[in-house]
Amino acid sequence: MIASQLMAYVAFSALCILEVSAVETFIAAVYEHVEILPSTIKPASCEEALALMNQNLDVLEGAVTSAAKQDAHIIVTPEYGIYGTNFVIREDIYLYLENIPDPQVNWIPRNDPNRFGHPPVQERLSCLAKKNSIYVVANIGDKKLCDASDPQPTDGCYQYNTDVVFDSEGRLAARYHKQNLSVSKDLFNSPEKPEFVTFNTTFGRFGIFTCFDILFHDPAVTLVKDFHVDTILFSTAWVNILPHVSAVEFHSAWAVCMGVNFLAAKIHNPQMKMTESSIYAPDSPRAFHYDMKTEEGKILLSQLDSHPYSCVVNWSSYASSIEAHSTGNQEFEGTVFFDTFSFVELKGVTGNYTVCHRDHCCHLSYKMSEKGSDQVYALGVFDGLHTVLGNFYLHICTMLKCGTTDLKTCGESVEAASTRFEMFSLSGTFGTQYVFPEVLLSEVQLAPGEFQVSSDGHLFSLKPTSGPVLTMTLFGRWYEKDWT
Fold it and tell me: Residue 304's closest CA among 58, 85, 26, 95?
């Protein structure tokens, strides 16, 4: 009898511990930060560099404290948020860097600040996390001395654009070195191999990558497909490029396609087209911020599922099952961010169109609420290798508003429209499973709850659009062909 009661007690206790240790939802926060920049690009001393970083940390501390008071479990801050974006060469940024150890050393900087030299920024981040009982994600710089026999780098030191995570006890929980550098390659080194950084919490499994990484297979896609993370932490200084890779449309589409939560914290700099911090779930945007008018920071919070649900999509099934719509000899070429698309103009208020490039065909059915004489829309397709800022093999179907009534402006950056759509259906014969569905309304706004992606791979409206449409796009990435 005693033994059976003991077993029952142990089983009950284990169940209680499991229920306490794992939660079904959590509150996420991201902070869009107006960076405080140095008066000179290259600091005169370590003390001058630290003073600048502490100014930014003072602001970030306010955001962390605010998030914690609203019961957030985790907060993400932007890339370059602590030392700024205006550096030109490696030497300019060196004094802002610290030695960041491997998290396996089990280190709480606030308790033992001199264990790995003296890293004041890590110590302060650790204190912030512990004081507020919150996970803090920040972007700083890591420096590692290299062997004298190593020919690269020539200055004897590896410099890495680095994301760090401190848990609610102030412990260094994760460190990620950015792989894909783009314009920052003159400041930092890439790791020899991509790093796949994850960590577990009571509110899900998290993965980390930074800014330009999102356009590549590694580490971004691998974290989801092979490491099965629930939520991506994304620090960025993203420059918005319409019509297809403005932050809100592309990052929300990435969350939908990959079936994960996505927490994006961005630098706020309207002059550089930097804004649009956001919190996305696979089923809908939960919070997003687009502000090109003010010079103010912004904190966003939302509740998310710890383990979001995603479904499998066959992105070519629907398009392969329907007949091509005849368009006659109406096709023309247009340029979208240096790539030559094949377009066909949408002539009427309602219609069905097909346009093809090589073996890739796009199908559109639509009905507009009205169509002004000054509003021109076109259906476009691209199948090829994009080579500006990197190699990206793209499969794209897009319906977009042209800049003016001149068809040569189809593909230009456009932020305003006046035409709403009663319904639409867009599909394509994609050769990749990685297709990111975008719907963007006038003034660069999203359309939550107004469209859906079917399991057979077509993007369709659920209701008339709440605002005029800028673009509807299926943005496909064929990673295997990036180097063909």
Answer: 26
In residues, how long is the chain? 484
Which residue of the set 211, 356, 362, 410 is catalytic? 211
pLDDT score at 146: 85
Distances (CA, A) of 173 to 87, 105, 168: 28, 10, 10
For residue 186, give Cα distances in angstroms to 154, 182, 191, 218: 13, 9, 14, 21
Instruction: Count Cβ atoms below 10 Å from residue 369 Cβ, excluding itself.
Output: 13
Mean pLDDT, rounded, of the chain: 92
Residue 441 has pLDDT above 70, yes or no: yes
Is 32 a catalytic site residue?
no
* Active-site option among 130, 143, 178, 401: 178
Vertex 19: Cα angle to 13 and 22 (nearest 5): 135
Count CA atoms closer than 13 A to 432's CA, side-chain side: 22
Active-site residue, 178 included: yes
Write the DSSP assignment of 292-338 as a string of letters: SS----EEEEEEEESS-------TTHHHHHSPPPP--S-EEEEEETT
Mention every residue, 6+ apart, whose C-beta is less than 8 A from residue 426. 362, 363, 364, 397, 399, 458, 459, 460, 472, 473, 474
Does 146 qualify as catalytic in the annotation? no
Q: Which residues contact 471 (CB under 8 A, 6 or more apart)?
A: 242, 243, 244, 249, 398, 399, 400, 401, 438, 439, 440
Q: Which class for 126: exposed (0-12), middle (13-18), buried (19 or more C-beta within 10 A)?
A: buried
d(CA 289, CA 299): 9
Q: Which of 32, 35, 61, 79 is catalytic?
A: 79
Q: Is the pLDDT of residue 232 over 90?
A: yes
Q: What is the pLDDT of residues 276-308, one digit of tens each?
A: 999 999 999 999 999 999 999 999 999 999 999
Q: Is the pTM of this model over 0.90?
A: yes
